[in-house]
Amino acid sequence: MPSTEAAARELQDRAALWSVGEIPASDVVSAACDALVAGLDSPGLRMLSACTRAEADYDVHDLLPQALDELGLVLHPATSEAGQEAAARALARRMLAGELRPWELTFRINRRYGHELPLTARLAELDDEYAFLEFGGDRAAAEIDAEVTAEARRLAAVR
Q1: What pLDDT score was predicted for residue 158?
Q2: Is pLDDT above 90 for 29?
Q3: Which of 23, 44, 91, 93 falls 20 to 30 Å from 83 in CA-CA distance?
Q4: Is the overall model pTM greater than 0.85, yes or no?
Q5: Would you say 71 and 11 are in contact if contact means Cβ atoms under 8 Å apart?
Q6: How many CB atoms lie within 10 A of CB 114?
């Protein structure tokens, strides 16, 4: 069973990813269920975790802010810099957990934010370097992977 801190972080990460369209609402509901099992509890969290997959797309939008607020967690607006950074950090943690490959992280970051988000600008540059590999770039993929992993660790550590 995950710790309450880990469950709270996962719920907040999934909320950030859902808000920018990276994951479906049902993944947020699953994280709410996991948070209850881990020992977190609030009326809003119970209501959120009770959503069916069919209800999630309609109800998460209304239920999630209350549940997070009751737990002392934050859902930043998706279009704000804080919201974009929260989603980028969540993606970095997913890569470090083995859910994404390094090139997938850079591709998603570059596609979503380009070189405009200061926190993730280096990942966007590394995505460009992956693209150069197709044209005989002078770096090895493993070298770029290692740099992406280091950047992901940096992002995951930022709160």
Answers
A1: 63
A2: yes
A3: 44
A4: yes
A5: yes
A6: 12
* pLDDT exceeds 60 at position 14: yes
CA distance 120 to 89: 9
Domain residue ranges of the chain, discontinuous segments joined by +: 4-70, 81-157
Q: Tell me the per-residue pLDDT of 146-157, one tens digit each, with 9 for 90 and over.
A: 999 999 999 998
